[in-house]
Design goal:
With 89 residues, the chain is an all-alpha fold. The chain has six helices and no strands. The protein has one domain: lambda repressor-like DNA-binding domains (434 Repressor (Amino-terminal Domain), Orthogonal Bundle), CATH 1.10.260.
């Protein structure tokens, strides 16, 4: 098993929920509604909602697009996810 596997032993839905929380926190901190963020990213509002609820997983392209609009970097978003993961261990 790789080091990455050891660090992130958790079920997928838990990780998806943590990503969704981070996305929602970044969105709210940037003053975006789900609808406005979706429009600016050329995504559907329901997709943003599903991401925030951990029901869908974004592609790398989507992560980069979201981060551009949220004035964050993809690496910062992943770091925030890592911080939240560490709180649950």
């Amino acid at each position: 098993m790789s080091h990455i596997d050891d660090d992130f032993k958790m079920n997928d839905s838990k990780l998806e929920n943590i990503f969704g929380k981070v996305l929602k926190d970044l969105r709210l901190a940037s003053g975006y509604s789900q609808e406005k963020l979706a429009l600016d990213c050329e995504l559907d509002r329901t997709y943003i909602s599903m991401l925030e609820r951990g029901k869908r997983q974004p592609t790398l392209k989507t992560i980069f697009t979201l981060c551009e609009k949220l004035n964050s970097s993809p690496s910062e978003m992943v770091k925030l996810v890592e911080v939240e993961v560490s709180k649950t261990e």
